[in-house]
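Summary of Year 1 activities. Much of the first year was spent building the evaluation harness for sequence design. The harness presents a backbone, in tokenized form, and records the residue chosen at every position. We chose the following record to illustrate the format because it has been used consistently in internal testing since the harness was completed.
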């Protein structure tokens, strides 16, 4: 398959593996409630996504991202180019001396590549990612997504009408749409939901012949794909003989047509001498409408609506954030791609629209969806993202909360030692993940036992109380599960002989050296 190349690509293709694993530190003063399982993280999403991996790998059902469009506009609240000081510093570190030669498209691609790789790892097998973008980077984004997610997992390019009136100062055409690129993790497992039918659509269903099966609408009984077998004359109940218009034929065979007539499914018009039409009952189509790839502003909102929404929440204060998305737009995405208890992630969250959309949708359908939101800029994360969600919770009187987290130090310091702040559960989660590539089930943790591998071959144990003093002793053997499975035990020291380890089917792994780096 053709692949896109750019300056710096070599340095970033495996960069996701080099990002240090950091712990997350809850900031109580900004958080709301306890154990809500909703998260807002302040920090670079590259490190935030990595920090989430031991907890959420293969767990997210729907990812929505609205990354900087790279329009060249640097004067916004957040930097729309990849020229923000933080990203510039990151590029300098990762790409090195070559950074000087990078054009803004190279930089954008370098920035997106490792982040998209981590996002893919976080997605569930039946999950999907929705990426907002415009013509500045749409072609590059498609090529990147093809490479990372696989072209076979492409679902659709949606066109969202973001404006409704043309801009008279446009140089050529007035641009009134954005794209939303949709990729599944695995197209064979992905399902898109149907859109709820609107009252106005249902109103087109009538019951002109008082059919006991209820409301119906008629549709053309002739088709364009011609078949001689289906081209037969039909006698209407009033005795008139009708044929399909030239070049067309009927939709079914003569025999099937007779069955339809017998079942009162054919409508010949009030006077019983019209061209036959097929009756479709509302009760049969009620489950919903297949979504199309063009989303008009009347259905999902527009830029202006999004600005007004934000202004209303912040009580008319001068606009704090440039280019938020309308809540209705994100709600539509979540509606189509999630069940009522799924996890939704937005790692370029900006003003927090995705969080509000999740909360509103849960309120509407009594759902229990959870969100994880990540924002790079300190002032945006605290004063806009978290503050907006707080205000929505308060004004809607919702019984939910969120944890606001900062990225803490890396789990391993520069000497390869485990950070002093690291607690048992964090290390257990990390070790279980690096051993199994799946997430720990906290309910399984029992003293030093931290879980069984998914293939049920290995049991994992962690002895971790006081740094540098964790010993695998004879005493510990008494706590082992009475099973024949292989037991992998992590500790600082091992005080029992190899013979005895073999007898108990134990493999000792020394902290920190034998902890795999993810
Ligand atoms: C286009 S805005 C998103 C707007 C959002 N959809 C809304 O409705 O408010 C992009 C956001 O991503 C943030 N961002 C940029 N690079 C980031 C990174 N590496 N990690 C986390 N956030 C980042 C920017 O600060 C900005 O707030």
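For this record, the design step produced the sequence shown next.
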């Amino acid at each position: 398959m053709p692949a896109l190349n750019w300056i710096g690509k070599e340095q970033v293709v495996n960069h996701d593996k080099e990002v240090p694993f950091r712990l997350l530190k809850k900031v109580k003063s900004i958080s709301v409630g306890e154990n809500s399982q909703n998260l807002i993280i302040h920090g670079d999403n590259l490190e935030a996504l990595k920090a989430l991996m031991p907890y959420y790998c293969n767990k997210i059902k729907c990812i929505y991202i609205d990354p900087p469009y790279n329009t060249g506009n640097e004067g916004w609240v957040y930097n729309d180019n990849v020229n923000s000081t933080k990203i510039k510093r990151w590029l300098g570190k990762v790409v090195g001396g070559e950074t000087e030669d990078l054009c803004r498209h190279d930089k954008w691609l370098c920035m997106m590549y490792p982040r998209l790789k981590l996002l893919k790892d976080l997605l569930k097998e039946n999950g999907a990612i929705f990426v907002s973008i415009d013509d500045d980077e749409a072609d590059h984004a498609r090529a990147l997504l093809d490479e990372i997610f696989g072209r076979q997992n492409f679902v659709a390019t949606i066109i969202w009408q973001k404006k409704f009136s043309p801009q008279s100062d446009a140089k050529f055409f007035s641009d009134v749409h954005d794209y939303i690129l949709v990729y599944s993790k695995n197209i064979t497992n992905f399902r898109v939901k149907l859109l709820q039918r609107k009252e106005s659509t249902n109103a087109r269903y009538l019951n002109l012949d008082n059919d006991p099966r209820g409301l119906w609408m008629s549709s053309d009984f002739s088709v364009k794909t011609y078949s001689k077998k289906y081209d037969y004359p039909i006698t209407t109940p009033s005795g008139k003989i009708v044929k399909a218009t030239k070049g067309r034929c009927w939709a079914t065979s003569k025999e099937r047509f007779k069955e339809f007539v017998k079942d009162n499914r054919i409508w010949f018009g009030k006077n019983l001498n019209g061209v036959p039409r097929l009756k479709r009952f509302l009760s049969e189509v009620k489950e919903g409408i297949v979504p199309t790839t063009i989303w008009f502003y009347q259905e999902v909102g527009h830029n202006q609506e999004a600005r007004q929404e934000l202004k209303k929440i912040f009580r008319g204060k001068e606009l704090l954030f440039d280019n938020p998305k309308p809540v209705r737009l994100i709600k539509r995405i979540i509606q189509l791609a999630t069940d009522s208890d799924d996890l939704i992630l937005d790692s370029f969250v900006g003003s927090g629209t995705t969080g509000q959309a999740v909360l509103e949708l849960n309120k509407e359908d009594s759902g229990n969806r959870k969100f994880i939101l990540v924002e790079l800029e300190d002032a945006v994360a605290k004063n806009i993202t978290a503050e907006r969600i707080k205000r929505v919770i308060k004004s809607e009187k919702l019984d939910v909360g969120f944890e606001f987290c900062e990225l803490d130090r890396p789990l391993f310091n520069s000497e390869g030692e485990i950070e002093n702040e690291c607690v048992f559960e964090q290390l257990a989660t990390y070790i279980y993940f690096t051993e199994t590539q799946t997430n720990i089930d906290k309910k399984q943790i029992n003293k030093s036992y931290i879980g069984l591998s998914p293939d049920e071959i290995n049991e994992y144990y962690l002895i971790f109380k006081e740094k540098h003093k964790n010993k695998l002793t004879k005493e510990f053997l008494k706590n082992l599960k009475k099973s024949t499975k292989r037991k992998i035990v992590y500790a600082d020291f091992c005080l029992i002989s190899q013979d005895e380890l073999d007898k108990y089917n134990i493999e000792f792994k020394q902290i920190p050296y034998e902890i795999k780096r993810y």
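The pocket of S-adenosylmethionine is lined by residues 44-45, 66, 68, 78, 321, 323-325, 348-351, 353, 374-377, 380 (CB under 6 Å). Quantitative recovery figures across the full test set are reported in Table 2.
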